[in-house]
Structures are given as C-alpha cells and as structure tokens.
Design a protein that fits this description.
The chain is mainly alpha-helical. About 75% of the residues lie in helices and about 0% in strands. The chain has nine helices and no strands.
Length: about 220
Amino acid sequence: MTPDDLLEAVREAKATELSRLGSSKALYAATAGEIEADRVLQAAATAERAAAETFDAWADDEANEAAAAAFRATAEEEHDHFERVREELDENGDEELTDDEDGEYLPALAAHLRGIDDTVARAGALLGRILVADESKSQYIGYFVGDADPQTASVFRDLRGDLDGQQERALDLLETVCDDDGDWERAESAALDAIDAAYEAQVEALESLGVNPKPVC
C-alpha cells in the first residue's frame, strides 16, 4: 500500500460519514442548536485549541523523531489557527473562551486522539482528523459567507488551505513509519476510527437535540 492508496481507501470507506460531517447539521450539532456567529466561532476555537494541545502532547511523548517533528509542526499550525479564530471572537466583542483544565469542553475527536499512543496509529489518525477538519471548515466558510461576513469567511478559507500542507505531511509520515502490510492496516484503521469518533459524536449531539442525523431526501 502507498500513502495515496490509504487516503483513497479511507475517503471511499467513510464517504457517507465525511459528507454528513460537512453538512449544515454539523454546525447545528457543534453549537447545540444555536447557530449564531459567536457560537460558531466558539466551537471552531475550541476545536482548534484541542487539536493544538493534542498534537503538542503527541510530539512531547513521541520517540520517533520524524513523527515528533510532524506532530510539532501540526501543533504549531493549530495554535496559530486558534489564535486567528480567537481574534475573530475578540472583534465580535464576545467573551473569552472558558478554561478547559478538566477537559469539560474537549471535543470527542480530540478525546479519541489523546488515547492513541502508537506511532503508526497516530499517523493514520492524524490523516483522519485532517479529513474531518476539512469538512468542518467548509461549513464555517459557508456560514460566514451566508452571514455576510466575508472577512471571517476568508479567515476560515486560509485555515482550510493549511490542511493541504497538513495532509501532505501526514502522507509523508505514513510513508516513513509504515514498514509492512500490518502497519498500513493499523494506520488505515486508526484513520477510520478517528472519522468515526467525530461522526458518532455528531450523531449523538443531533439526536439529543431531537434532530434526525441522516439527511432527509
């Protein structure tokens, strides 16, 4: 298997879940049914902060130098993403984000990632997280375009653009750390599980709000 083969396999296997993670219902779930600019920004900032802290922890813990460098670079980008979203919150006059020392506001995907301690699985899960983030950022862009806020929409376009580099980094890392078929299978499974963690959390949130998580045709 090659990194591109794995990417294609994951996208194909989770096409439905990724599509739903990129639907308008995703914002409804992320904001607990209150789709307003401040709540959307708060949800985005929380996700970016959680990702940054997760990849920082991976980098600190990782014995593989190539993996540690990839996780550190990704963490730095996610810290930048968080700061840019927080700036938008400040410009909107919204309150500071609540501290999260006890993990009360930890998104399900970040919580899932923090339970992974294997280098190959982390590389696969990183790819899965990037695919999820790409879908969610498409919704942030769409929301702020519809809200007649082109400046904030542009910020999220920039953040989404960074995911291209993150994906290349993840694919290069997979090429480095996967030595045999067993490694590739473990990496693929980890990518699928990461997407499932995000999707299952969205389904649970929507159902708790009395919303059918599946699209109505």
